[in-house]
Amino acid sequence: MTSAVVPDHPWLLPGALAVPTDQVRVGPRRTTRDWIVDGVAFLISLLWVLFVTADATTPDPELAPRLPHDWMIAADALIGLACCVLLWFRRRWPLGLAVATLPLTAFSMAGAIPLLILYFTVVVHRRTAVALAITAAGLCTNFLFSYLRPEPDMPYWVSTVWGVVLSVTVLAWGMFVRARRQLVVSLRERAERAEAEQQLRVAQARQLERTRIAREMHDVLAHRISLLSLHAGALEFRPDAPPEEVAKAAAVIRGSAHSALQDLREVIGVLRAEGGGEEDPERPQPTLADLPSLIEESRAAGVRVNVADLVGAPEAVPAAIGRSAYRIVQEGLTNARKHAPGAAVTVGVAGEPGAGLTVEIRNRWPVGGPADGQIPGTGTGLVGITERVTLAGGRLEYGRDDSGDFRLAAWLPWPA
């Protein structure tokens, strides 16, 4: 299988995004943090090489020399420098470099630190089985190192145990870093998935609201066209009717046709996609004149509703605007029942032709924050209301105001 290539982020485990870690090849791109980490690792390794080389060239005269020949010291220093250079390539080929340099761990003291860093990189970026295999091979070379480079003041087995402890410590640390990075990636994927699902729910709510508005307008349009057919049929049935009756019927036909054309324009503007298979809305459609009955229903359900203002002549409000105002008040009362049970709700609807229609629902913010409530819902009611108001050419505001109350307010255009 072809290996995937992903950037090696400082906190992101390469290949953790649904790709097995043993099939991931770390990409060549480095972040700023990667350059800093690699630079620090290189400097630490270089200082270690210089320290070991200086210590080997000036041995304690009371102890036997650790390397019998000077050329061995120089060779060990060159090996350490080569391992330091290899650190710049460890992100691309961690496993290959670890296997290639594994024999050096049997005798090189100067390359100990850079070789440990290579080993740590393998543990972090490869699956556990590979890390354990490299660890087992490293433990075998550890026995050889203690034999070929014995410490004059330390027994063989003590030196060997310290090497095992160091290897196991690096293994545990690398596995911890690897597990932490996988957890971070998992949490990020979960958050992105939740955000995508929420966006999908919002889009569905908007589409459902468009479909509902279009179907409501369809019913109104059908009603107006039926009036046209009725009066046209009357004229056809009574061609000898008095001129006054003919003029009256023609006026009704003209008004109904004009209203039907307006409704048809609204349907075309709202219905941007084919409707789904939802159930038909209830008939007859509610208008602004049905607000008192809606308020009485809420009061019967135990909600304290105060009416601040209502339009005096609701029949003068255009049907589409009235339906939108009704839906806004309905959503506001529903939210108050769900999230602020027991709180008093104030409803106000005011306006006039040319100035627009203002709808406002206000309730006290519940003590301790909004309640979860037991009323089921999708949490997208306000999204649908926002879409309805926007399509009508109005404005919608909701949230806590300066007094601490929750306020849902909308302005809808009311032609003169």
Number of helices: 10
Strands across the major sheet, in which order? 3-4-5-7-6
* Number of individual domains: 3
Radius of gyration: 40 Å
- pLDDT < 50 runs, ≥5 residues: 1-28, 272-282, 373-378
The biggest beta sheet, please?
Answer: 5 strands, mixed
**Beta-strand fraction estimate:** 5-15%
Kindly report how far apart the N and C termini lie: 71 Å
Share of helical residues = 55-70%
What is the strand tally? 7
Mean pLDDT metric: 76
Structural class: alpha/beta
What global shape is seen?
Answer: rod-shaped
SSE pattern, N- to C-terminal? EEHHHHHHHHEHEEHEE
Secondary structure elements and pairings:
Elements: E1 4-6, E2 24-26, H1 32-57, H2 70-86, H3 94-101, H4 112-125, H5 128-148, H6 156-237, H7 243-270, H8 291-300, E3 305-309, H9 319-339, E4 345-352, E5 356-363, H10 381-391, E6 395-400, E7 406-412
Parallel strand pairs: 1-2, 3-4
Antiparallel strand pairs: 4-5, 5-7, 6-7
Helix pairs in contact: 1-2, 1-4, 3-4, 4-5, 4-6, 5-6, 6-7, 6-10, 9-10
Overall description:
Pfam families: HisKA_3. Keywords: ATP-binding, Coiled coil, Kinase, Membrane, Nucleotide-binding, Phosphoprotein, Transferase, Transmembrane, Transmembrane helix, Two-component regulatory system. It comes from Micromonospora globbae. It catalyses: ATP + protein L-histidine = ADP + protein N-phospho-L-histidine. This protein folds into three domains: 4-153, no CATH class; 202-270, Single alpha-helices involved in coiled-coils or other helix-helix interfaces (Up-down Bundle), CATH 1.20.5; 288-412, Heat Shock Protein 90, CATH 3.30.565. It has helices spanning 32-57, 70-86, 94-101, 112-125, 128-148, 156-237, 243-270, 291-300, 319-339, 381-391, and strands at 4-6, 24-26, 305-309, 345-352, 356-363, 395-400, 406-412. Strands 3-4-5-7-6 form a five-stranded mixed beta sheet, with helices on one face. It has a two-stranded parallel ribbon with strand order 1-2. α1 runs antiparallel to α2. It has ten helices and seven strands. With 416 residues, it is α/β, with parallel strands linked by helices. The relative contact order is 0.07. Helices cover 57% and strands 10% of the residues.
